[in-house]
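Board notes (copied after class):
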Amino acid sequence: MLVRRAGATAKPACPECGGKRLTRLISRFAFHQSMMSKLEQLDPKYDKMIDAANPDLSFDNLVKKYKLDQPVKKRKGD
């Protein structure tokens, strides 16, 4: 198999027979999603199941714990 980068200008030849009539193949690639992307694709019905499995990490509890529902207070000097 002859591997060649996209955009290469030199005409390749078969390493076995030296032939110039080659067929272009595009290789497969892997796409890895982040955990956040995977969670965003879940059906919303699973949100309640996740919250029930670990109530400390539920959205509502995290909002309360970190006071995300309150306006941000400016610090002195900002």
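Comment from the instructor: The chain is about 30% helix and 0% strand. The chain has a mean pLDDT of 78.
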